[in-house]
Recover the amino acids of this structure.
């Protein structure tokens, strides 16, 4: 693995199925230039047998950007990792945390936590054919396999394959009985488990995921860990990250853009995509939360929701929504 391609993962934006597409990631770049952005999980089958450009193309402004793969066949993962590196991604992340039935049926996601040797084999297969980092995103346990000893054994086994970055969702997952949504909310968060992993493996980069909703919380975690991955809050209330570049990356070069300036920056992108016949609704759905908890924010959301999906809708829909807000 090429350690020169080190990414600064102090703040990461989580892979979220159906949410973190290339338009959402480009919108996040209007708010933070430095946070590492992740694609939604893409299966090896979709890459090897599907529309590669549709799944993998992204905008240059999205860097640093990581792709999350779902799979458990070392050869398929190695082939996909090489393809993704050729597309220009900065990191390959393996999903060992998603508990959905569909994922389990494909023998990947969280159920792989029960097979650390297979995960290690998968990671080694990818690391051997690419020069960008390979990382793992896991839970702290699954079902009744949730002792710290088992998590320690999992991390120890996988790190021997050359992986030095683990993103840990600090909840266990129930593989049956809970929906993916419930698995993000019902099992209790145990941040101290992630802290213990860092103590036991000080040479590894440990990033914590789950329940982080403010930069102050991120600050607290970083007293124990190397970074924080923000999920749903980054989507529903993206502007809370506006200070991340200055606070965690020491970059105050661009000042702190206002919400309205963020909207204008993204509108330039939207217009460039409309010129390529991209559908407006695919781009505006990601910005509904820009004026979260602001007076008149509901007017912004309602106007976009009601008008972006109309036939022939263009940039004027966002302009009007901004007018209503202002």
């Amino acid at each position: 693995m090429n350690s020169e391609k080190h990414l600064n993962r102090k703040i990461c934006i989580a892979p979220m199925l159906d949410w973190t597409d290339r338009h959402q990631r480009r919108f996040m770049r209007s708010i933070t230039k430095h946070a590492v952005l992740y694609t939604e999980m893409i299966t090896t089958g979709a890459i090897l047998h599907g529309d590669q450009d549709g799944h993998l193309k992204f905008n240059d402004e999205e860097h640093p950007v990581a792709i999350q793969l779902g799979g458990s066949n070392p050869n398929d993962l190695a082939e996909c990792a090489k393809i993704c590196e050729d597309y220009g991604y900065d990191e390959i992340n393996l999903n060992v945390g998603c508990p959905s039935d569909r994922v389990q049926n494909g023998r990947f996601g969280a159920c792989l936590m029960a097979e650390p040797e297979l995960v290690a084999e998968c990671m080694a297969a990818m690391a051997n054919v690419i020069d960008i980092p390979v990382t793992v995103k896991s839970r702290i346990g699954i079902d009744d396999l949730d002792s710290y000893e088992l998590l320690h054994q999992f991390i120890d086994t996988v790190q021997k394959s050359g992986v030095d970055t683990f993103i840990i969702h600090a909840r266990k997952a129930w593989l049956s009985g809970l929906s993916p949504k419930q698995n993000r909310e019902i099992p209790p968060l145990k941040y101290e488990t992630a802290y213990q992993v860092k103590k036991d493996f000080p040479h590894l980069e440990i990033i914590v995921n789950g329940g982080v909703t403010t930069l102050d919380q991120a600050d607290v975690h970083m007293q124990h860990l190397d970074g924080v991955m923000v999920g749903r809050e980054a989507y529903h209330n993206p502007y809370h990250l506006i200070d991340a570049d200055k606070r965690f990356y020491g970059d105050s070069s661009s000042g702190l853009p206002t919400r309205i300036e963020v909207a204008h920056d993204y509108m330039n992108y939207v217009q460039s995509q409309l010129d390529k016949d991209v559908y407006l609704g695919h781009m505006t759905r990601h910005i509904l939360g820009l004026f979260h908890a602001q007076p008149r924010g509901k007017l912004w959301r309602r106007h976009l929701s009601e008008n972006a999906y109309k036939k022939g809708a263009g940039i004027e829909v966002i302009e009007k929504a901004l007018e209503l807000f202002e």
Remarks:
- The chain has 16 helices and eight strands.
- Residues 123 and 161 are 6 Å apart (CA to CA).
- The mean pLDDT is 96.
